[in-house]
Amino acid sequence: VTVQNNLLMANNSSISYCVSGGYQATKKYPVATNIKFLDNVFERGANSKCGVYGPVTSFQTTATGNTWSGNAYTDGAAVNP
């Protein structure tokens, strides 16, 4: 899965995070691989976090083929997993 060059709009009232990287320890196959988030822009919204708790959850930078690069808020600040 590649998510590239998107504007991820904020929703500070009904979504926990703007994106999920797919890792879920409680699932039969918990590790998501070959997930790429490249050059996306995250809107901060009213609470400055994109979602209620933050911009991203469950993204494993160490999983095979996963890449997180060039993602930033609309003000240019880096968004890190």
Helix-strand layout with pairing:
Elements: E1 2-4, E2 7-8, E3 17-20, E4 36-38, E5 41-42, E6 54-57, E7 67-69, E8 72-73
Parallel strand pairs: 1-4, 2-5, 3-6, 4-7, 5-8
Short description:
Helices cover 0% and strands 28% of the residues.
Give a description of the structure.
The protein has 81 residues and is an all-beta fold. It is built from no helices and eight strands. The strands form three sheets. A three-stranded parallel beta sheet has the order 1-4-7, with no helix packed on it. A three-stranded parallel beta sheet has the order 2-5-8, with no helix packed on it.
- Poorly predicted ranges (pLDDT <50, ≥5 residues)? none
| Main sheet strand line-up | 1-4-7
Please provide the count of β strands.
Answer: 8
Q: Rough shape?
A: globular
Average pLDDT, rounded to a whole number, is 96
Structural class: mainly beta
Radius of gyration: 12 Å
Approximately what portion of the residues adopt beta-strand conformation? 25-35%
The helicity comes to under 10%
Measured distance between first and last alpha carbons: 16 Å
Q: Tell me about the largest β-sheet.
A: 3 strands, parallel
Q: SSE order, as H and E?
A: EEEEEEEE
Instruction: Give the helix tally.
Output: 0
Please name the defining characteristics of this protein:
81 residues, mainly beta, three-stranded parallel β-sheet, globular
